[in-house]
Amino acid sequence: MSKAFAIEQLDDTDRELLRLLQEDGTLSSAALGERLSMTVTPCWRRRKRLEELGIIKDYQANLDRRKLGYDVMAFAQVRFGNHSANAPDEFEQVILKLPQVLSCHKVTGEADYVLTVLANDLESYGRFVEEVLRRQPGIASIQSSLALREVKAVSRIPVP
What we know:
This protein is α+β, with helices and mostly antiparallel strands. The protein folds into two domains: 10-53, Winged helix-like DNA-binding domain superfamily/Winged helix DNA-binding domain (Arc Repressor Mutant, subunit A, Orthogonal Bundle); 65-147, 2-Layer Sandwich (Alpha-Beta Plaits), CATH 3.30.70.920. The protein is built from six helices and four strands. Strands 2-3-1-4 form a four-stranded antiparallel beta sheet. A hairpin with a 6-residue loop joins strand 2 (101-106) and strand 3 (113-119). Helix 3 (29-36) crosses helix 4.
């Protein structure tokens, strides 16, 4: 689906429904309908259509990482020495399986990838770097930055 196709399919009610669900993904069709001044069935149909279009990918609860013992958030910049080998593809497959890696982006600039990694403490992050990242073939360098303070951390996407 192209971007234009998805955006053209959204009316004001769809946009408001998306905003409400990003604020609270647990809202029932009845509660959504009430807020949107709709009955339950048309509201449910709209929600289902947005799911089928892939605009709504999934639902999740937002957790407090510190209360779960993850006191360190690190940003690892990974650079490969040889881009022609399969090493980057194999690296991506390894990263996809690691729950402590919250995000991995292939980027432009000095690094090839930027990862957001959670760890209980500095020692456990160090183990992750040594036992996981440094063991991946083809990696030329790893540079880490540690979050000192979280200024903004949201996953809500602005609805156009």
